[in-house]
Design a protein that fits this description.
Largest sheet: 6 strands, mixed
Number of strands: 21
Helix content: 25-40%
Order of helices and strands: EEEHEEEHHHEHEHEEHHEEEHEEEEEEEE
Number of helices: 9
Low-confidence stretches: none
Amino acid sequence: MAGVTLENVTKRFGETSVIEGVDLVVKDCEFMVLVGPSGCGKSTLLRMVAGLEETTAGSISIGDRVVNDVPPKDRDIAMVFQNYALYPHMTVRKNLEFGLTIRKTARPEIDRLVKEAAEILGITPLLERRPKQLSGGQRQRVALGRAIVRKPAVFLFDEPLSNLDAKLRVQMRAEIKKLQHRLGTTAIYVTHDQVEAMTMGHRIAVLHAGKLQQVGAPLEVYERPANLFVANFIGTPPMNLVKGALADGGGVLEASSFRLPLPQALRAAAGQAGRKVVLGVRPEHVLDAEAPARGETAPLELTVEIVETLGDELVVHGRTGDDVLVFKRDAHRAPEVGARVPVKLDLSQLHLFDAGTELRLGA
């Protein structure tokens, strides 16, 4: 097995920069998820690790070997694509065998590896079928099996679940995670779905416009976003962001329609009065006025604009002046649209960002 190291990796197409100076270390046996919106460069970065795209600058290492000039077939990687890429005229067995046959692997070894992969993925009864006779989930398992038989040092996944329905995606997410844990192989997984990223990765790397924004454990990135982009991208519903300025010596945040005392932990980092900032608060930290709270809170009254039912809970959009705050409520306590609802903000869970640099303020 092997880790993957990217040092100052850059990719340009002519004058267009797609990846700019990415530094990333994927540890041996780690499941790393590259997540970001469409067009942020995550698939291009994965293709550079695979050798399907050349780097404009920087170096990529797999294990102790720099692989910039190593062809894809010699990099000891296996890639699973979004479109499965199965040979339609071949049976499942032949699809699984194909890469091993090209490498002139001995027949007994091919049979052993195919049998082992089929048992792991539960596709043994499907070995004599062709891809058109399989469901989407079964085809995805075959694509995974073709990667498994290679026994690679690194698995690369390029949005492999995008073509599946919602229920099957949840099932396959769990299966891929269990598979990676069982095999103990380093994996890099690309997705635009931040729920997928949060549930699957040991760590996640958030990209935006070709630049790495933050790397960390899912909970770390969720609770301590490095900048406004990460704060807004990670989380469903996303973090509430309200523009404001510091007042009263930096101890109060003054938004367009309310004032909020800042907890002591934020005051030192916030700076002097007059500084333009953006307040961040997660929907789950906009509490019902009667709900118990662990620490200090600040009251607020919101006018309900939208109520979204999500089964066991509601997502409510409330307005105060020009600012909209989204919060969650029990499904059996739906407020009426237009009603004024008292809430309170958990001051210990506030986030502050500099309005100019968009970087997080605070330790």
